[in-house]
Each structure stands twice: as structure tokens, then as C-alpha cells.
């Protein structure tokens, strides 16, 4: 009894209050999103809001169980749970029914469970266990490769289930890794790779105007080449401070492009600016490798490899877009980039969602008074597009309140993670904060049309038992670990 009394005092009740507020607001929002005049009762369990109430009570019971379990249990069970989830993900591919092209759900009677939601929790525990070992070193190649395998394995299996959106959530672990010592250059390179992918895809798919010289489809590659050159100059200045090397590369590149420009004036059929870019990349790479040997510094060679990798990335964009992505994913990306306009097809959801949010104005239309919502203009408005219901009925004030809830929760999680006494708890806490941040940003981004629709839920607001339980597991396990921090302090 005394132990339970101490646990109650040690819990972070601010975070629990945030959780309860978000769950209740989410339930009322789901009720508004799927409201039916023939089923007005809040406790109608034939409707989605009624079933969500069941999921909520189950989640609360799960939260209590999590808090009552000794905190050491989560460390001990991490590898076992991760292995079990990997096996379950694999089995799901073969036993899951086809639901809108996805094979990620396990049906149990009239209920369905999505293991991918719990795989995030299992991976967070596994990473925390592995990285909290005394002998772990972020600078060791073996440890880095082990971490990459732990993250990429569930990602690959979930992609095989045709759940690309859920798989992308695992990218959020990079934020935790950065906090734990991963070179920030990895994040920068990842961001640069995304930018180059978008630039090539955006400019290489523009319509070609008659008589245009050079053809406009070359501009994507040309912009990437120029971007790589500027980024390489920054890297050289940052890591080598070799101004002579920078000037040599700049003059070489400018000279090659100047010659290319002259050739195109007199003999345009001889050369494209893309060809000049290839020459610049080749010459620059050769010079960097030579300097690496002469000055015996790996940094020059690594920057040279950046040139090679970028060229490979630029010319793999079209293949990856056409061969790897599904047709519905391709059209969603094209709509966001402005390459296509399909207001009655793939762009319908986002268009109607934007209309719903915009029509809410400053104060909103009022509870249950949203026309876009009541007339079912927005598909999936109680799951992935739940935020548009908030925008229409509660307006700017309501959306600001919900965003403030998430920002407060994420900041609270970061503060809690920083105050942990054990590396296991800290790493797990940052994993939880990263997952919530990714879901929050991407879900709202896709609802307002600034990122492609990838189908991930808004934590505690979107309808679904799997997501409710998965996020509850993530949050309350961290609350239990945080309570253990207080126990350690008292013992000291």
C-alpha cells in the first residue's frame, strides 16, 4: 500500500492531465465527425464514437497496469518484445485481409488490430536497451549498423504490408539518435537528399515548351549540380578551412560552365548543360581524391564521395518514383508539388479538408454545425483527417488550442527525458517525444496540404483502438520510468 502511495506522488500528473484532456477532446471530436441524426446518443456502441469510448476505457486500464509494473520489467523485456513484434509483423503479411490495398490488420472476430502501431513501442524499447549498454559507443561502426538494422527491419516489413505511412514514422528515431551523439551531418545530409529529390522531381516533370533551349527537363539536374557544388564548398570551409581548394573548385566549375555556355551559343546540338554538370562533378571528385592523397586527410575524399552519391541520387529519383512508389502515392506527391491538379480524385481529400478548415473562420461554426463534416465531404474525417473537423467546428481558436496541447506535451516529454537518471529512460523518453512530434507535424501537414497524404493518425484524436493503445503504451511506460527516477533520488 505504501509503495502504491509513493508511486501516486511520484507520477508526473501534468502529463497525465494533458493525456486525459486530449483523449476527451478527441472523443468529442470523433463524435462530431461521425455524428448521425438517427444515432445521436454519445453511448451508441454501434457508432464509431461509441467504440472509441470502449478503446479509451481499455487504454485507461492498460495505463494503470503499466504503472503498477516494476520499471525494471521494461528493460528486461525489450529484446523479447521486439523479436515477438517482428515475428507478428511478418505473420501479418500472410494472414491479413486486403483492406484498401494494405495487409497490415489482424482480424479478431469483429475487431481489427494493427501490429505496426505497437512496433514503434517495441523498437523504442529495443533501442533504449541496446544504447544504454555500458560498452555502447555511437562512434563505433558496429553499433551504428546495429541501430540501423533495428530501425530498418520493422520499416521494411511494414512497407511490405503496403503501409508506407506507418513505416516512415520510424524515421523519427533519427531525432533521438541526434540527441544521443549522432553526427548532425547525418541529419543535414538527409535533409539535403530530400531537397534534391524534390528539386529533380519538380523540375524534371514540368511540361517542355516548344523551341525551348536548353530543354526544361534538364533544369532539375542542373540545379542539383549547382546545389552540390555550394554544399561541398560549405563542407570544405567547415571541415578543412582550405580556401585554396575552394577557390580551385569554384574556378574549375565556373570555367567548365562558361565553356559550355559558349558551345551552346554556336553549336547547341553538341552539348547540354546537364553534360557540363557531369564534367564538373567528375573533375571536382577527381581533384578531391587527389588532395585527399596528397594531404592525407579523409575529409576531402568524403566530400568527393558526396559528389558521387548525389549524382547517383539525382538519377535514381525517376526510377524510385516510377518503380518503388505505388500509383496513389505518386499522384499525392505530384499534387503537393503542383505537378498535377486532381480535385475530384487523389486531391479530393486535401481540397475538402482545406475548405472545411477555412470555413471555420476564427471561432468556428459550433459543435455539430460543420457542414463539410455533417455532409461527409471529407473522407476519413474521423481518422487521418480528424483535424479538419476541429478547424471547421472550433475555428482558429480550436485549432490553436489543439496545437498548443501537442506542443506542451512534446516539450514536457523532452523536459522529462532530460531529467532522467538512467540512459535507458532518457533514450526511451526521447524516442517517445520524437514519435509524437512526427505524428503531430505530418498529420496536420497533410491535412492542410503541405505534405503528401501518407495516412498516419493524430495521437489521441484519430479513431482507432490500435493507435489509442499504442500511444498509451508509449506514454505511460515513460511515465512509469520517470516515476522510478524519483525512487532512485529518494534512495540516494
Question: Describe it for me?
Answer:
With 492 residues, the protein is mainly alpha-helical. It folds into 2 domains: 2-184 and 341-491, no CATH class; 187-324, no CATH class. It has 20 helices and 2 strands. A two-stranded antiparallel ribbon has the order 1-2. Strand 1 (106-108) and strand 2 form a beta hairpin. Helix 5 packs antiparallel against helix 19 (423-447). Mean pLDDT is 82; it is low at 208-217.
Topology, element by element:
Layout: H1 2-10, H2 13-33, H3 48-68, H4 72-95, E1 106-108, E2 111-113, H5 115-131, H6 141-160, H7 164-168, H8 173-179, H9 184-204, H10 219-239, H11 243-266, H12 273-295, H13 298-314, H14 317-324, H15 327-336, H16 348-359, H17 371-374, H18 386-418, H19 423-447, H20 465-491
Antiparallel strand pairs: 1-2
Descriptive terms for the model:
20 helices, 492 residues, 2 domains, mainly alpha
Physical arrangement of strands within the biggest beta sheet = 1-2
Q: How many domains in all?
A: 2
Query: Average pLDDT, to the nearest integer?
Result: 82
* Class from helix and strand fractions: mainly alpha
The N- and C-terminal alpha carbons lie at a distance of 22 Å
Q: Can you tell me the residue ranges where pLDDT is under 50 for at least 5 consecutive residues?
A: 208-217
| Strand element count | 2
Strand content: under 5%
Sketch the topology as an H/E string, one letter per element.
HHHHEEHHHHHHHHHHHHHHHH
Name the shape in a single word.
Answer: globular
- Helical fraction equals over 70%
Q: Using only CA atoms, what is the Rg?
A: 26 Å
Task: Please tally the helical runs, counting DSSP H or I stretches of 4 or more residues.
Answer: 20
Largest beta-sheet details: 2 strands, antiparallel
Amino acid at each position: 500500500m505504501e509503495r502504491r502511495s509513493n508511486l501516486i506522488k511520484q507520477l508526473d500528473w501534468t502529463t497525465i492531465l494533458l493525456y486525459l484532456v486530449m483523449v476527451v477532446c478527441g472523443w468529442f471530436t470523433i463524435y462530431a465527425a461521425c455524428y448521425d441524426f438517427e444515432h445521436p446518443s454519445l453511448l451508441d456502441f454501434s457508432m464509431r464514437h461509441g467504440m472509441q469510448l470502449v478503446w479509451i476505457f481499455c487504454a485507461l486500464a492498460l495505463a494503470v497496469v503499466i504503472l503498477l509494473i516494476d520499471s525494471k520489467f521494461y528493460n528486461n523485456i525489450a529484446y523479447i518484445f521486439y523479436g515477438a513484434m517482428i515475428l507478428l509483423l511478418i505473420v501479418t503479411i500472410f494472414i491479413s485481409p486486403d483492406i484498401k490495398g494494405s495487409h497490415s490488420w489482424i482480424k479478431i472476430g469483429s475487431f481489427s488490430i494493427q501490429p505496426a502501431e505497437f512496433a514503434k513501442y517495441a523498437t523504442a524499447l529495443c533501442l533504449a536497451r541496446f544504447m544504454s549498454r555500458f560498452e555502447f559507443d555511437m562512434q563505433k561502426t558496429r553499433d551504428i549498423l546495429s541501430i540501423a538494422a533495428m530501425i530498418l527491419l520493422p520499416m521494411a516489413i511494414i512497407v511490405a504490408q503496403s503501409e508506407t505511412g506507418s513505416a516512415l514514422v520510424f524515421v523519427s528515431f533519427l531525432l533521438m539518435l541526434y540527441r544521443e551523439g549522432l553526427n548532425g551531418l547525418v541529419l543535414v545530409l538527409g535533409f539535403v537528399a530530400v531537397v534534391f529529390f524534390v528539386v529533380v522531381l519538380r523540375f524534371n516533370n514540368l511540361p517542355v515548351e516548344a523551341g525551348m533551349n536548353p530543354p526544361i527537363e534538364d533544369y532539375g539536374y542542373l540545379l542539383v549540380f549547382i546545389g552540390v557544388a555550394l554544399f561541398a564548398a560549405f563542407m570544405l570551409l567547415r571541415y578543412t578551412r582550405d580556401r585554396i581548394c575552394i577557390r580551385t573548385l569554384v574556378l574549375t566549375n565556373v570555367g567548365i560552365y562558361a565553356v559550355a555556355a559558349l558551345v551552346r551559343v554556336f553549336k547547341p546540338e553538341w552539348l547540354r548543360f546537364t553534360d557540363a554538370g557531369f564534367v564538373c562533378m567528375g573533375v571536382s571528385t577527381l581533384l578531391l581524391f587527389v588532395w585527399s592523397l596528397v594531404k592525407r586527410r579523409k575529409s576531402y575524399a568524403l566530400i568527393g564521395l558526396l559528389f558521387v552519391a548525389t549524382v547517383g541520387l539525382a538519377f535514381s529519383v525517376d526510377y524510385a518514383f516510377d518503380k518503388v512508389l505505388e500509383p496513389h502515392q505518386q499522384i499525392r506527391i505530384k499534387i503537393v508539388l503542383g505537378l498535377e491538379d486532381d480535385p475530384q480524385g487523389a486531391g479530393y481529400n486535401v481540397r475538402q479538408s482545406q475548405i472545411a478548415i477555412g470555413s471555420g473562420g476564427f471561432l468556428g461554426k459550433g459543435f455539430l454545425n460543420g457542414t463539410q463534416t455533417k455532409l461527409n465531404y471529407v473522407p476519413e474525417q474521423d481518422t487521418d483527417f480528424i483535424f479538419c473537423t476541429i478547424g471547421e467546428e472550433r475555428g482558429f481558436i480550436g485549432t490553436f488550442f489543439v496545437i498548443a496541447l501537442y506542443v506542451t506535451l512534446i516539450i514536457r516529454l523532452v523536459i522529462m527525458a532530460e531529467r532522467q537518471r538512467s540512459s535507458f529512460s532518457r533514450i526511451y523518453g526521447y524516442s517517445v517525444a520524437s514519435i509524437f512530434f512526427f505524428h503531430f507535424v505530418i498529420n496536420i501537414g497533410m491535412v492542410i496540404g503541405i505534405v503528401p497524404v501518407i495516412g498516419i493518425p493524430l495521437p489521441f484524436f484519430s479513431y482507432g483502438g490500435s493507435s489509442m493503445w499504442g500511444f498509451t503504451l508509449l506514454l505511460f511506460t515513460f511515465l512509469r520510468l520517470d516515476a522510478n527516477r524519483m525512487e532512485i533520488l529518494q534512495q540516494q
